[in-house]
Amino acid sequence: MTGMQLNGSASWNQTASRLRLTDGGSNEAGSAFWTTPVNIQSFTNNFTFQLTNANADGFTFTIQNVGATAVGPAGGGLGYGYGGTGIASSIAVKFDLYSNAGEGSDSTGEYADGATPTLPAEDMTSSGVNLHSGDIMNVQMSYNGTTLAMTITDTVTNASFSTSWTVNIPATVGANTAYVGFTGGSGGETATQEILTWSLSN
User: Fold this and answer.
1) pLDDT in tens, 158-170
2) Half-sphere exposure of residue 92: CA atoms within 13 angstroms, side-chain side
3) Strands 160-166 and 43-52: what pairing?
4) What is this structure's pTM?
5) What is the number of H-type helices and E-type strands within the chain?
6) Do residues 56 and 98 touch, judged by C-beta distance below 8 A?
7) Tens of pLDDT, residues 45-86
8) What share of the chain is helix, strand, coil (3-state, %, to 5)?
């Protein structure tokens, strides 16, 4: 994952060769984006992550056209957005540890243009996928120009959750290429949030 711009609380965990978005401190906001825009008209996106001492708040996979140094608010903003004051010209998929607005403490969802990543959301609890478990999670995404599909799988228990969203990503971000990466946040409660592996291809 070399060639990434690290912002805010984001850092490179040299010991474990992991991208760390938040490190267990309070009120953190971090992001990491490839420094060169990539084609987002259609793609396959796979990554693994691990959330340790996972209390709050969560992280996002974000596609945006602001720039490699973009980072949003801490806490429930997940380093992405809050009240439209976050990362503009963007699409984000969240992995949310904390129920700020009734979304539940184990949820996902898709958001645009720096919106607050709380509701609407999809609660993953009944699937057995538990973001608080500390297990390594594998995420597989695909985008065909119309539908963004995602499956998250717990690599320890094999529990999985699948969902999809209808979205025109190039129209939302305003271009056929964009900066791609991750954002994360913590508030009064915290977590160590790390991306272990990542590959994106067209």
Assistant:
1) 999 999 999 999 9
2) 41
3) unpaired
4) 0.98
5) 1, 15
6) yes
7) 999 999 999 999 999 999 999 999 999 999 999 999 998 889
8) 5, 45, 50
Which H or E run contains 107? strand 107-112
Structure-token pair, residue 44: 């396959």
Residue appearing with tokens 């709380």:
118
Q: What distance in Å separates the CA atoms of residue 145 and residue 63, rounded to the nearest whole number?
A: 14
Phi, psi of 8 (to 5 degrees): 60, -125
User: Domain limits of the chain?
Assistant: 4-201
**Angle, alpha carbons 55-106-23 (nearest 5°):** 35
DSSP designation for 145: S
Interatomic CA distance for residues 116 and 89, integer angstroms:
14
Please give the CATH number for the structural domain made up of 4-201. Answer: 2.60.120.200
